[in-house]
Write a structure and sequence with these properties.
Bound molecules: 1,2-oxazole-5-carbothioamide
CATH class of the largest domain: Alpha Beta
CATH topology of the largest domain: Alpha/beta knot
Shape: elongated
Number of helices: 6
Radius of gyration: 22 Å
Length: 245
């Protein structure tokens, strides 16, 4: 997968050099390129913003630098039939979730436009629809100072789903939201710690019982913390009632 990120703070994306994403870049599994929007300005002050038409506080990012930056990305894009997808992090976007992460992980080329200030001149977003599949996306119903933090989260959530990024793909199977539920609690040695013992079932060696216990814990946690995820629960998927932790 090819990922391009355009930002006025490219150093913000340095975290993408680290850990699993960083290794995947070194291994050539992910091709991540970060671009400084100011490279695409033409004035001596490298201006990227101006006052909003209609008045109001703050500044708006100018359309032209964005158009030139995105044109540059298109010219560097891998030779393929697919239009790149342009993700614009915004509180006014569709909410990002694990299903969207899986959807984006199946694409060939993602481009992230990190807005700042009060946002990007809407004409730049409209212009981009000619060359990109444009998707405003929000991490959640709150406001950040810019898109960079959201891009770090989305690149990690999407990148880890790309084959070859996570060492053991099995670890992607039993995790929160993989099956619509929150993940079960996990424990490691010692089995007794500061007077707290792990659930006895985990020492039983009875794999079927352990699986049922874990499934029930998923349902318990989801009902407690995220009842909105349960929806029309399929009772047949609930483990048998003979559970004892
Ligand atoms: N909620 C998101 S993604 C955001 C981007 C900029 N401000 O908030």
């Amino acid at each position: 997968m090819r990922i391009d990120v355009v930002s006025i703070f490219p150093e913000y994306l340095a975290a993408l050099d680290l850990s699993l994403i960083g290794k995947a870049r070194q291994d050539g599994v992910l091709d991540v390129r970060v671009h400084d929007l100011r490279t695409f300005t033409t004035d001596r002050h490298r201006t990227v913003d101006d006052t909003p038409y209609g008045g109001g506080a703050g500044m708006v990012m100018k359309a032209e630098p964005w158009a030139q930056a995105l044109e540059s990305v298109l010219t560097e894009a891998p030779a393929s039939q697919h239009r790149p997808t342009l993700i614009v992090p915004s509180p006014a976007g569709a909410v990002f979730d694990q299903a969207m992460a899986h959807e984006l992980a199946g694409l060939e080329h993602l481009v992230f436009a990190c807005g700042r200030y009060e946002g990007i001149d809407e004409r730049a977003i409209d212009w981009a629809r000619d060359g990109f599949d444009v998707r405003p996306v929000s991490l959640g119903d709150y406001v950040l100072n810019g898109g960079e933090v959201a891009v770090l989260a989305m690149v990690e959530a999407v990148g880890r789903l790309i084959p070859g990024v996570v060492g053991n793909p099995e670890s992607l199977v039993e995790e929160s939201h993989a099956d619509g539920l929150l993940e079960y609690p996990v424990y490691t040695k010692p089995s007794s710690w500061r007077g707290r013992d792990i659930p006895e079932v985990l020492l039983s060696g009875n794999h079927a019982r352990i699986a049922r216990w874990r499934r029930m814990e998923q349902f318990r946690r989801t009902a407690d913390r995220r009842p909105d995820l349960l929806g029309d629960i399929d009772a047949t998927s609930l483990p048998a009632a003979d559970l004892k932790a």
